[in-house]
Each structure stands twice: as structure tokens, then as C-alpha cells.
Amino acid sequence: GQVAQSLLETIRNDRSVQESSLSCVLLKKFFLEEQASAKISPEDLEQMRSAIMDSLNFAAGNNQVLKRKGELLSKIYAKQSKSEDLLKLLVQWATADDAASREFSMYVFEILSDIHLTSDQLTNYKSDFMQIFEKALQDREISVRVAAFKAITAFFNGIDDQDVVLQFITVMPKLLDIVVETLKQNETHGLTALESMEDLTKNHPEIWKGHTSQLVNVISQVMQNKDFDEGTRAAAAEIVAALSEQMPAALRKTDECKTMLFPALAQMLTEVEQDDQVWAETTDEDESLAKDPANTAVSIIGRISNDLGEKTTLAA
I want to staple 160 with a disulfide (CB 3.0 to 4.6 A). Which of 89, 119, 128, 136 is the partner? Predict the structure, then answer.
């Protein structure tokens, strides 16, 4: 219809970041979402696909607009039942010279893994995916490495077969390295990586077999670092809590729990509110929702203690 044509024209011309991004969002909402009120024909879908493909401008380097266009393409190819054709394009973009193209490829991989590809499709293409991901994890640009991290965790989370996921267990140390590197350079991106890692730990805890010591080491250092925001430290602690719930035996056998994790939690317990007036006005409900270090530690210690069991003791 006329509305769709107008939105496509704005997207095609890339007049401004705000206009292009908003047009992408509106096009997806009104024409491509499952609950969209407007009906769209196969011919219109193909016209949309062609227009958006023609509008891709990696040289401009505007990641916000590119991401919105990537979301549109993933929706369109899925509606056309051609997601596997999009995968072939992603392979090309993942090996391009410009970083924006490589990052775009990883972002769309993440969307496809999260939403549009079945577990069987992900499994069938696992070797091809991991070749691309492993190369992206070595990329010279941190933005591409972070995008690859998120794509890999989405890929793992999208696979139902535990045995398939465990075939890629060797990549986990590299993922931890990227978390550390990202937190040092951009804490916001690092927090996103920690949250992705928590989801992965909940869905596939066995992926940490053989790497539990390194995981606890990294997470404990993040928890202890007072330079990080409270939310970042709390997100790190949630990863350990997720692992203790899913795989308590692995934590019991890990020396770093005694030498690093529990000391980190003990330190966080001491980081209490120093202002007596603020402390006096804090309600129990406020404390239960708080992410300050002391309340985070209280919560995590309670959950881990319950998971590890009463026979677990700490040496003095």
C-alpha cells in the first residue's frame, strides 16, 4: 500500500538516522509482525526485500540503521521461507573487508538463531556457523568480536540437543576472554555479554565442563571490582548462581570457589550503606529488589548454599 511505499522510500533514501530507524520499526510493526493488521502479498514482500537490500550501505557505518534493516530482512526472509538463503548472504558479509559488514552479519545471525531458525536448521549448519563464528572471535575490531559473542550464545541457546552444543565446548575460554576484554573497554557491552552468558548457563550448563575454574575466576574478579556498576557485578554473580542451580557438583569440585568466589561474596557483604539516614528509610521490599553489593551477596549466598547442600564446608 501507499504507507508501505512511503516507509520504504524513506528507508531507501536514508535521509537521517532517526527517520530511517523509525521507518524500519513502523514497517516491521504494521506489515511484518505476526499480529500485524495489514496483509501483505508475496509480491509486496519481494519488493520490500529488494528495496532494503539495495539500501544497505556499510560504508556509511551507521550501525543503528543497519541493525533495524537486519531485523527487517530476517523477518522478510522468514516469511518467504527463505531463511537459508539469507544465511548464504551472511557468510559473504562475515568475510567482507569493512567491519560494519562483518558486525552486521553477526547481528543478523543472532536474530536468526533467536527467532527464525529451528533447532534442526541450526544443527544442520553447525559446522559452517562455527567456522564463521570462530573467525569473528579473532576479528581485529572489538565491536565485531562482541557481536560474534552474542551470535554464538544465541546459536547455542537455539539448539535443543545438548550433545550438539557440547561439540563446541572448546570455544568457551575464548568467550570468557572476550567478556573480560569488553568489560575493560565498554562496560555497557560487557554487561550485555554477561547477561547472554547467564542465559547460556541456564540452558546449557554442561558447556562449562572443563572450564568451570576459569569461569569462576573471571566472574569472581568482576564481582570484586568496585569500579564496575552494581548491576554489572550483580549480573556476574547471577551466572554463578545459575551454574550452582544447574550443576552444583561442578562448583563443589572447583578450588576457585573457596579461593576466589566466596572471598568475593564476603567482600560484597561488607559494602553496606554508610549513610544512617538512608539505611533507616530502606524497607525490606527495597532490599529484596536492590542490586547493591551487600544485598546481591546475601541473595547469592542463600541460593548457592541451598544448591551446594549442607555437607559442603569451607576450610578455615
Answer: 119
Confidence check: pLDDT of 116 > 80: no
8 Å CB contact between 232 and 183: yes
CATH topology of domain 82-167: Leucine-rich Repeat Variant (1.25.10)
- Binned at pLDDT 50, 70 and 90, residue 37 comes out as low
pLDDT tens track for 250-283: 888 899 999 999 999 999 999 986 665 655 566 5
- Residue 316 in this model has a pLDDT that exceeds 50: no
Q: Quick one: cell of 246?
A: 544447574
Give the pLDDT score at 302.
92
Using the predicted structure, report yes or no on whether residue 289 has a pLDDT greater than 70: no
Domain ranges of the chain: 1-80, 82-167, 186-316
d(C-alpha 199, C-alpha 203), whole Å = 6
